[in-house]
Amino acid sequence: MHLTINIVFFGTILILLYIVIDLIRNKGRNLLRKFIFYTFMFYFVYVLQLTMGGITIPPLEARMIKVQWIPFFFVNDWVMHYQANGLDFYFWNSVKLTFYNLIMLVPFGVYLALLFQVKQISKAALMIVILSLAIEVFQLILSYFGVIWARGFDVDDILLNTFGGVIGFMCMRVAMRFRRRIQHKY
Fold it and tell me: Where is the VanZ-like domain (predicted)?
C-alpha cells in the first residue's frame, strides 16, 4: 500500500510557521511587500503540488518514463483526438491541459516584476524557462525513482509555461508603468 503525501498541507503549515516567526521578528516593517512574498510562497507550494502530485511513500517501483521532445506536439494531440472522436471528452481534456500549462506560470511572471523587481523581459524569460525546465526535470527524476506518480518530461510544457510566464511579466510591467504615470500626474 502506498501513501501519497499532499505537499500543500505540509507546505502550508511550514509557511504559516514562517509567517508567524517573520512577523514577530520584523514587526511592522514593509507589510505589503511581506504579504506579497507570503502569497508567492503559497503559490510556489501549489505549483509543486500541481506538477508533482504529492510524494509517494514508500516509493513506487522504477518504470519507464515518457519523454516528449517535439515542440508543439500538443497541436498533433488535438488533431488526433478530434479526428478520432470529434469534440469529445479527450479532445477537450487535451485542450484544457494545454491551457493549464499556459496559465500555470503567469503568476510567476507577475511576481518577477512585482516582488523580485526584474525589469528586462529577456531576464524574466530566462528565469521562467529555468523554473519550467527545473519542474520538468524534477518530474522526470522523481517519477523514475517512484517518489511521485508517473509523470513525463514534455518540451511543450516548457514552451507553454514560458509563454504564460512572459505574458504575466509583461502585463505586470505595463500595469506598473500605468500606475507610475497616474501617480506622477496627481
Answer: 35-174
Domain ranges for the chain? 3-185
**In this predicted model, what pLDDT tens digit does every residue of 36-46 receive, in sequence order?**
999 999 999 99
Q: Count how many Cα atoms sit within 13 Å of the Cα of residue 68 in the half-sphere of its side chain.
A: 17
Residue 93 amino acid letter: N
**157-176 pLDDT, tens per residue?**
999 999 999 999 999 999 99
DSSP E strand stretches across the chain: 3-5, 55-57, 67-68, 153-154
Give this prediction's pTM: 0.90
Work out the burial of residue 139: count CB atoms within 10 Å of its CB; fewer than 13 is exposed, 13-18 middle, 19 or more buried: buried
DSSP state letter for 28: T
For the chain, how are helix, strand and coil distributed in percent, rounded to 5? 70, 5, 25
Omega of the bond prior to 58 within 30 degrees of 0, cis? yes
H-helix segments, 54-120: 73-85, 89-103, 106-114
**Please, how many CA atoms are within 13 Å of residue 126, restricted to the half-sphere of its CB?**
6
